[in-house]
Amino acid sequence: MSTETRTYDAQALWQKDKDHFIHPFTDYSLFHEKGCDLITESDGIYVEDVHGNRFIDGIAGLWCVNVGHGRAEIGQAMADQATRMAYFSTFNNLSNAPAAELAAKLAELAPAHLNHVFYSCGGSAANDATIRLVHYYFNRLGKPNKKRILSRNNAYHGTTYLAASLTGIASNNWEFDTLDHLVTHLSEANCYRRPAGMSEADYCDHLVKELEESIESIGADNIAAFIAEPIMGAGGVLMAPQGYHARIQAVCRANDILFIADEVVTGFGRLGHFFASEAVFDTQPDIINCAKGLSSGYAPLGATLISDELFEVLGTPQGKGGVLSTGFTYSGHPVSCAAALKNIEILEREAICENVREVGPYLEQKLKTLADHETVGDVRGSHFMLAIENVADKATKELLPVEARVGDRVAAEAQKRGLIIRPVGHLNIISPPLIWDRDTVDRVVAILDEAFAATTASLKADGFI
């Protein structure tokens, strides 16, 4: 933890938070009574709450603190940049050194054809900006009807207005409006819940056929792009069948539909590579969106990586005096870009991607031992991006009733034992800092073993199983 000790009035801080902070993705039927746990310190793989309780961070903040907490050199890089020049506009032919250096570094790390970077302030904004640029691209090509975006059920692409419409998690948009005229959702790629009796290869054929039929029904001339996470994150760490992404991309290319990879979660080492699209899934997207691990959460930053082919159109003015009239006040913010540059330096210097490739399979293997518990139906994911699906019946895969709050129960039992994991309905997600070693994995799995045993006992005591 920080060497500088700061004391808090825990009760007063809790009350201020409860009275004034509108928390995202929070159940207010509970919040109004219980408020929130306040995290006040962090270091390495640990965080500490306002009462001094220490926890292993099993979710990397929120999929993002890839190099771990408390990296003084990232803080120093930010402080140095803020002292030198905290901010200046990047509009109207102005720029700054960290933004330029980072853009070149991202082009070096990304698949070879993605040489151009459009900055935003996070993943959701990156996805919004991307769709606006895609529509503009086709307008410039004289194809103004190409507006529809194909996304997937249970996809997560953010909560800004358009990104929320791309998101296919039904509960995310309960009583919120969405831009349904722009987005069509296809089936998610979910090997665990594929149709009974269908092989993985047949399931892949089934999903590709659905895409082809949707294109035929909508008309390729009306479709601009297909957007997908390499592994679906907040929707449940859903794994596609082998070869799915490459086949989907091939269908898109055959129909003049852009292929967008949302690597907001998978980028910067979570699957053992800076970008997973080409290295893991054998695809070469027209666009890759990233955020989270780009700065390891030390400063808000998102980026859209654009192919040479698209930029040839985007970078040509509409006419004399024309400008690319989109962007943000904080596009290429120098302090955020300085944080990202130092973060990438650490990832490379400490061979953190290599650590993920070495420790990740061990984490997968050890987590699968939890399948012995009565409620654990599936343990899935890859490397440092994993989920446990809780069920009432392993044979039928029937879920427990919502009121059982099984994911919350497991997370609470883990937190009692010194581990923070993420509950998402009937799921529990593990997405740790990428610096975990095998000893940490062993400690985490031992805690989870106890947490699932305690959860099973409480579910039985309350009559849910």
From TrEMBL:
Sequence similarity? Belongs to the class-III pyridoxal-phosphate-dependent aminotransferase family.
Which InterPro entries does the UniProt record give? Aminotrans_3, Aminotrans_3_PPA_site, PyrdxlP-dep_Trfase, PyrdxlP-dep_Trfase_major, PyrdxlP-dep_Trfase_small
Q: Which organism is it from?
A: Halomonas salifodinae
Its protein name is Aminotransferase
Instruction: Quote the NCBIfam families the UniProt record gives.
Output: PRK07036.1
Listed cofactors: pyridoxal 5'-phosphate
Any one Gene Ontology MF annotation carried by this entry is: transaminase activity
Give the signal peptide range: none
Q: What is the lineage of its organism?
A: Bacteria, Pseudomonadati, Pseudomonadota, Gammaproteobacteria, Oceanospirillales
Q: Which Pfam families match?
A: Aminotran_3
Would you say which domain of life the source belongs to? Bacteria
Q: Which residues form a coiled coil?
A: none
Q: Which UniProt keywords apply?
A: Aminotransferase, Pyridoxal phosphate, Transferase
